[in-house]
Amino acid sequence: MNKVKEEQYQRFDDVMHRIYKRLRQLHGEVNTMFPEGITSSELSVLKVASKYPDAALKEISNYLDIPGSTLTSIIDRLEKRNLLRRAISPQNRRSYVLELTQEGIKISDLHEAAEKELWKKVLGALSENNERDTLIELLDKICRGME
After folding, report:
1. What is the pLDDT of residues 25-83, one digit of tens each?
2. Residues 30, 114: contact at Cβ < 8 Å?
3. Range 102-109 contact pairs with CB under 8 angstroms and sequence separation of 24 or more
4. pTM above 0.90, yes or no
5. The pairing of beta strand 96-100 with beta strand 84-88
6. Which residues of 81-104 are buried (b: 16+ CB within 10 A; e: fewer)?
7. What is the pLDDT of residues 121-141, one digit of tens each?
8. For the CA atoms of the chain, what is the radius of gyration?
9. 69: helix, strand or coil
10. Which CATH number fits domain 22-146: 3.40.50.720, 1.10.10.10, 1.10.1670.10, 3.40.50.10330?
11. How does DSSP assign 15-48, residue by residue?
12. What phi-psi label fits residue 87: left (phi over 0), alpha (psi between -120 and 50 degrees) or beta?
């Protein structure tokens, strides 16, 4: 790992806390569109189930990096709210996939639109396309460097 100057750390710490604060504010504004009590974990499961309809529960658990027992609890809550249902996988009859109900699709679509709006606000803070591309490339580099 490369040596970080104290001044760089301080500036970075300040900027990241301001970003976190603003993202929480924006996220709060966006979350008013969702039903009372739906959690970010539940929204994540709905998003993955929508994006990867043929994914087995084990694959979803791995993708979200959560234990199978946690995923089961989340699925149970979402089934009680009639947002999704377990179905036998057409590829492997020994495993299950998740199917979104009409209400689940509606919430998943709302979440996708809200998230898109949030990220557009973040990227829109930069005025040039090359700045946005640079930001994305740097964040990707940071992510790879932290693995």
Report:
1. 776 666 656 667 788 899 899 999 999 998 999 999 999 999 999 999 999 999 999 99
2. yes
3. 104/46, 104/49, 104/50, 104/78, 105/50, 107/34, 107/35, 107/38, 107/43, 107/46, 107/83, 108/46, 108/47, 108/49, 108/50
4. no
5. antiparallel
6. bebbeeeeeeeeeeebbbebeeeb
7. 889 999 999 999 999 999 999
8. 19
9. helix
10. 1.10.10.10
11. HHHHHHHHHHHHHHHHHTTSPTT--HHHHHHHHH
12. beta
The set of residues, in sequence order, having a beta carbon less than 8 Å from that of 13 and lying 6+ positions away, is: none
How many residues does this entry show for the chain? 147
Domain boundaries, the chain: 22-146
- Specify the pLDDT at position 113: 86
Tokens 């090359």 appear where? 130
Q: Which residues contact 115 (CB under 8 A, 6 or more apart)?
A: 30
Tokens of 36: 């009372």
